[in-house]
């Protein structure tokens, strides 16, 4: 009897197992349908997650951009009625001598500060990239001007560049370079020189951090192999470091160029574009036309033209990087 019961139980279990096995796919699909659906259809979950970001970009980026584009086709006076004038603002874009001069001056300023920022940033990165005692303190000191910001530094320089009382003239007089009464901010070339020195000192810290991070990512074995081959320091930098951080150098240059094309705070605080329009940058010219002359439609057209130029420069830079890689 026990044998029969065991066989029966075994047969029953086998039959039950076969039934369960046969029916498992149907039952499994029914029970695990919702979880599998959520795992095999991530677009729905992804759409829910990115919706806040999409709404934020649409409300605070795309909508203002579309509205600005509309304003550029009008003679919007900021205060009062306006009318649609089509492409007139764009057709007369370069008929404003102040704006044309601002373009040339901004390009000159960009050309002056770009190379020194990269060179000083690279030198500082080489100086602090090694993990030796005191390197952390030096990194903090060199990066501190960028943290303080150009706006604060510009307000400080307004006081320090005053004739007969500022620290700039005091130091130059002590060095025997000037008589200590130079009016830096009312002379176009001198003001440009002072602002360029300020910008190079303030922004090179960011370049240092970017290049230092890239340098620290180079394996030590590469440098050790170069030393075993008898390579000098300059050969190591030229043949190993520079090629391996080329992308970071390009990124630093494009950040510097875009920042220079958008320069506004330091010029507005220190010279307000003067004397006359000698130190007026593109953004200064746009600001004056829109909020001083109340020609917001023309100023918006100039702004959109500047955005297009900066976008073209950025796209070209990324294209150049892709070709080299």
UniProtKB/TrEMBL annotation:
One of its GO terms (biological process) is transmembrane transport. One of its GO terms (cellular component) is plasma membrane. PROSITE patterns: ABC_TM1. CDD domains: TM_PBP2. Residues 1-41 are annotated as: Disordered. It is found in: Cell membrane. It is a multi-pass membrane protein. The chain crosses the membrane at residues 46-73, 102-128, 140-159, 190-211, 248-269, 303-321. It comes from the Bacteria. InterPro entries: MetI-like (IPR000515), MetI-like_sf (IPR035906), UgpAE/MalFG_permease (IPR050809). Residues 103-317 form the ABC transmembrane type-1 domain. Residues 22-38 have a biased composition (Low complexity). Keywords: Cell membrane, Membrane, Sugar transport, Transmembrane, Transmembrane helix, Transport. Belongs to the binding-protein-dependent transport system permease family. This is Multiple sugar transport system permease protein. It comes from Curtobacterium pusillum.
